[in-house]
Amino acid sequence: MKCPFFVHGNRKLPRFHRVKMNVDQTGISDIETEVNHTLDQVLDNRVIKPGHRVAVAVGSRNIAGLKVMVKTLCRRLKDMDAVPVIIPAMGSHGGAVAEGQVKVLESLGITEETCGTSILSTLDVEIVGSILDDVPVCFSKDALGMDHSVAVNRIKPHTKFKGPVESGIYKMLCIGMGKHQGAAALHQAALRHGFYPVIKAAGDCLIRRTNIRFALGVVENCREEPSEIKAMAAADIFTEETRLLTRAKHLFPRLPFKKLDALIIQAIGKDISGSGMDPNVTGRAYDLMEDDFSVNLHATRIALLDLSEHSFGNAIGLGNADIITEKLYSKLDYEKTLVNALTSTSLRKAFIPVRLDNDLSAVQAAFFTTGITDPENVRAVIIRDTRHVTEFLASSALLDELNAIPGASMGEPEELLFDDYGDLVLDLR
Q1: How many domains does the chain have?
Q2: What is the distance between the alpha carbons of residues 280 and 284, in angstroms, rounded to a whole number?
Q3: Spatial separation of the C-alpha atoms in residues 206 and 308, rounded to whole Å
Q4: How high is the pLDDT of residue 92?
Q5: Does 415 map to a domain?
Q6: Which residues of the chain fall below pLDDT 70?
Q7: Could you tell me the CATH number of the domain that includes residue 115?
Q8: Which of 16, 82, 132, 423 falls 20 to 30 Å from 174 in CA-CA distance?
Q9: pLDDT (tens digit per residue) in 83-109
């Protein structure tokens, strides 16, 4: 789609400084040893006996060291002569089909070969109870058919709501292990009762009425490295997850600004955030019953340049932007995106924003439509994605603010570079 208004050289762009934020980057160097150490606290051969089958719930998120964690857990269970079986715990992701969810696991390095055990993927569920008078609580039928269930997940701030537990073990149990049917039912209930009350009540119900034995929770630092790994018995999940969420919020990477004219994001994706781009970073959340994230950041314009390869066409979240490129649009699998949007009752996230031919046109449009006439006055930031914000480009208009931030180091001002196709030439870490 050619737009003659925005062409190479037609609109002057501000100069940018490469910024690196010096933040707490303490991580775990030996993930296998740490997993083994924390598993010692929950593995009990009086409960998990030889021959017992154990469902190991694994989600769709790209967690650093996930393959090592799952492989180590499965090996420890086999050392007890138990039989671990990996089950996808990802609600409607992977197109809400069993084969698609296996492909998501494969993209994360979770295969039968790498983990030394079988993978069982179906969308069958059983209703194990109800909450808030009439809301059904579902759980994987495959997991219920085994002797025990355990879950492995990252704990972090949620992209819809705020509460004592947000995105973590509780959510995986009731949304991920609830499969498509359970995820849809609980998201619909959240429109009436609120997201946190539903997640809390459903999680409590599942811990009481199913075979959940323990969970493995992970908190990451700003470099996406595991900072803490904690095994927790079923009865302790809520207390431990609450503690770990507090730590995760302290470590969560955010941009050091409250107001921007333009935010340019190189890529969104389901592997990056459940919302494609995390509102804890962007400040953008529009759908029904979602909490206000604009206290973190308000950006007048948001432009998206590409879709992550590991999102497999699911472009959920693009509707929270103002501008996208044809490159992103060409990778969009609208059926997968729509299934995710309908299941999560987040219709706005599947809207199609203004489409422009290439990165250059998208960037120019984002800057020009802010109402700022002098490019050097545009308060703009370019990030790789919402998981990587400790290194970014900031326009010269933000220089005074950056100079006042402890731990921020800046390079010399430079012009943005685009190739012959109008794509941004930029490598951010």
Answers
A1: 2
A2: 8
A3: 33
A4: 78
A5: no
A6: 1-11, 24
A7: 3.40.50.11440
A8: 82
A9: 999 999 998 778 889 999 999 999 999
